[in-house]
């Protein structure tokens, strides 16, 4: 089991309340909106609602609803050392760049970016002849930097913003731990997207599908899906490209930054509420990775136990071959979830499957070999 451990700040002011704590005690995290210095400050309280300090992170960087317990106390110093911990999943999810952004043109944006100008000057000082240089995509989370010199082809660097780095700082800590990326603080134009590192260091699901023992396992798959049909599940009345379908559903589901497209022909948001209510805390459009089998895959949606795959090709007869079922099983293993859901928003169908644990165990062991 992996744990996220936080050191509590401000313990000197609350040393009197800390004296009565012991290892394993449950603590509560709450945002202190009335904090004069920082309205996003996260206060830490014991079970009797006595404050014991602050967490030095933003609310977006941790899950304040997680169950944190005291993992270390040292009272023999001026500022008491207090650590709290909470278990974290073996498998994690990261926000990935939507496919629609990967097919954009290479037009340099006219941005007044001081950090970019400093970076450009540093390259010129090294006598690098820049033929083409600049940002071709920029939003709250992602930056695409184009560099072309006289002796290279065009190279696009997929980078992240400081905001994205700070919002995902604990995921980055995990990647530092597994030596996927060098350990350093955020620096402009040096922190690349996590999926770039996954692509270099981990196997994709399509690599797993080529493993000989996995191919042999596929021949013995015999699983029955439960079919759910409901008119309220119908989201579109026109068949559209899957890329736009996924992006628009993400637009409806997520409160995060959205890559909006206006190429959807029809949308019925009222009916879509039914789909949202079928799953608690549904999260949209991310990449899942698994350190134990060093693999990654794309997941359309997920919650605590479900993964949801969007597929507009499935019909009422549920004509799925073993290749597709095997791919779904691998998605389930990588994401460390329990139930597969395949949603066709055009026909209003959900196919569900909770595979027996012994099947998951066999396939998982094949991947570890």
Give an overview in words.
Strands 7, 11, 12, 13, 14, 15, 16 and 17 form an eight-stranded mixed sheet that branches. A six-stranded antiparallel sheet has the order 1-6-5-2-3-4. The chain has a three-stranded antiparallel sheet with strand order 8-9-10. It has three domains: 87 residues, Alpha-Beta Plaits (2-Layer Sandwich); 107 residues, no CATH class; 165 residues, Lambda Exonuclease, Chain A. The protein is α+β, with helices and mostly antiparallel strands and 369 residues long. The model has no long low-confidence stretch (mean pLDDT 85). Strand 14 and strand 15 form a beta hairpin.
Distance between the terminal alpha carbons, to the nearest Å?
A: 21 Å
Can you count the helices? 12
Q: Give the CATH class of the largest domain.
A: Alpha Beta
Helical content stands at: 25-40%
- Total domain count: 3
Radius of gyration: 24 Å
Q: Uncertain segments of ≥5 residues (pLDDT<50)?
A: none
Q: What name is given to the CATH topology of the largest domain? A: Lambda Exonuclease, Chain A
The pLDDT mean sits at: 85
How can the largest sheet be summarized?
A: 8 strands, mixed
Q: Helix and strand succession?
A: EHEEEEEEHHEEEHHHEHHEHHEEEHEEH
Structural class: alpha+beta
Strand fraction band?
Answer: 25-35%
Morphology call: globular
Secondary structure: number of strands: 17
CATH architectural type of the largest domain = Alpha-Beta Complex
């Amino acid at each position: 089991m992996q744990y996220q451990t936080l050191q509590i700040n401000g313990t000197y002011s609350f040393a009197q309340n800390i004296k009565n704590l012991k290892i394993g005690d449950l603590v509560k995290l709450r945002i202190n909106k009335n904090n004069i210095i920082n309205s996003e400050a996260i206060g830490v309280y014991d079970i009797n609602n006595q404050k014991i300090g602050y967490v030095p992170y933003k609310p977006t960087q941790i899950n304040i609803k997680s169950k944190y317990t005291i993992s270390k106390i040292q009272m023999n110093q001026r500022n008491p050392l207090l650590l709290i911990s909470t278990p974290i999943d073996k498998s994690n999810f990261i926000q990935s760049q939507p496919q629609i952004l990967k097919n954009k043109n290479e037009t340099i944006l006219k941005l007044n970016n001081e950090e970019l100008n400093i970076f450009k000057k540093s390259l010129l000082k090294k006598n690098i002849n820049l033929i083409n240089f600049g940002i071709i995509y920029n939003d709250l989370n992602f930056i695409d930097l184009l560099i072309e010199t006289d002796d290279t082809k065009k190279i696009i660097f997929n980078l992240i913003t400081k905001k994205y780095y700070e919002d995902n700082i604990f995921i980055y800590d995990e990647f530092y731990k597994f030596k996927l990326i060098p350990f350093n603080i955020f620096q402009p134009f040096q922190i690349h997207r996590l999926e770039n590192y996954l692509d270099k260091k981990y196997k994709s699901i399509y690599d797993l599908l080529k493993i000989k023992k996995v191919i042999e396992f596929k021949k013995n798959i015999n699983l029955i899906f439960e079919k759910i049909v409901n008119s309220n599940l119908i989201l579109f009345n026109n068949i559209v490209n899957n890329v736009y379908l996924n992006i628009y559903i993400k637009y409806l589901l997520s409160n995060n930054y959205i890559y909006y497209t206006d190429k959807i022909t029809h949308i019925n948001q009222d009916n879509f509420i039914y789909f949202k209510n079928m799953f608690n805390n549904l999260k949209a459009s991310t990449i899942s990775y698994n350190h134990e089998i060093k693999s990654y895959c794309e997941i359309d949606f997920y919650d605590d136990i479900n993964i949801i795959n969007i597929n507009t090709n499935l019909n009422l007869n549920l004509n799925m071959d073993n290749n597709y079922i095997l791919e779904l099983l691998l998605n389930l293993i990588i994401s460390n979830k329990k139930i597969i859901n395949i949603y066709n928003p055009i026909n209003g169908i959900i196919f569900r499957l909770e595979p027996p644990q012994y099947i998951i165990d066999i396939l998982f062991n094949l991947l570890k070999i």
